[in-house]
Amino acid sequence: MSLEAQPEEIQAVPIRHYGRWLAAALILAVVVWLGAAAANSHAVSMAAVRRYLFNPVILRGLRNTVILAVLAQVVGIALGIIAALMRRSVNPVLSVTSWLYIWLFRGTPVLVQLIFWYSAVPLAFKHLTIAVPFTHLTLYSTRMVSFMTSFKAALIGLSLNEGAYMAEIVRAGITSVDEGQVEAAQALGMRAGLTMRRIVLPQAMRVIIPPTGNEFISMLKTSSLASVILYPELLRAATDIYSVNFLTLELLIVASIWYLVLTSIATFGQYYIERRYARGSTRELPPTPLQKLRANLLRIRPAPSEAPR
């Protein structure tokens, strides 16, 4: 009885992506050219950059930037949730008020708002007084010039502006949830507040998290506008130093390096938060940056040659 002929082994030949290698070579050449040009221009003293990178004034400004950005983003998220719920309310007063708030703070520049809170408000209101209504009992009273410091003006201005953008982000996330799930929750006897906390918001977070992360990264950089109202954040610290020693480019590079560090940390944090909320919506979770790096290294590494049989 004759044996059946064995099928020939398939020799799989990988596709050569010459365009990728050409693009990578061009990008590498441009980067090397720019680096060499910067090194040979002698316009920037890298020794001065290294000397001021961990300067106490710079580190103090870095700390103030982080504090301002985190607080403004937290307050902005809270204001955005409230404004988004007001915008969806059937009460016309709440809906119109929310719309006017979003329209005003999205339609005017952030810098104008910061200057308004720091300069115009103390001129318009001489005193800040908190009292019990319909009584003569005063709980708190001070001069507005003393109350409205640069930090408070920056925090109020950035928070209100961020709240207007977060309101639209939250509203888009709530709208993305299927209305049938809300109707099913109502059929089970769940109240509107409980439905929002247990059903709508957990699913809306998948839509809300990515733009919120982008907003926080933008907030880290937008906080540099507070230097105009004399808040000692990172850019203001660099400005104060180079106004004395005239190392303008070096100090701007130092500030840029720290901004890149902050935004890189925020980017990694945003990625892992998005990955966590992606559970249950995709069959497989997206790979982590380390997993991507390992996969790319294995792809570049040549396959081991098989020993002849």
Structural account:
This protein has helices at 18-41, 46-52, 56-87, 92-107, 110-124, 144-147, 150-175, 179-187, 192-222, 234-245, 248-277, 289-300, and strands at residues 127-131, 138-143. The chain is 71% helix and 4% strand. Helix 3 runs antiparallel to helix 10. The two termini are 27 Å apart. Strands 1-2 form a two-stranded antiparallel ribbon. The chain is built from twelve helices and two strands. The protein has a domain at 72-230: MetI-like fold. A hairpin with a 6-residue loop joins strand 1 and strand 2 (138-143). It is flat, with a radius of gyration of 28 Å. It is mainly alpha-helical.
Regarding CATH, which class of the domain at 72-230?
Mainly Alpha
Helix content: over 70%
Average of the residue pLDDT scores: 85
Enumerate how many helices there are, as a single number.
12
Q: Supply the helix-strand structural class.
A: mainly alpha
CATH superfamily placement of the domain at 72-230: MetI-like
Radius of gyration: 28 Å
Q: Report the CATH architecture of the domain at 72-230.
A: Orthogonal Bundle
Describe the biggest sheet?
A: 2 strands, antiparallel
Number of strands: 2
- The amount of beta strand, in percent, is under 5%
Please report the distance between the alpha carbons of the first and last residues: 27 Å
Q: Order the strands across the largest sheet as they lie in space.
A: 1-2
Q: Characterize the overall form.
A: flat
CATH topology of the domain at 72-230: MetI-like fold
What's the quick description here?
With 309 residues, this protein is mainly alpha-helical. 71% of the residues lie in helices and 4% in strands.
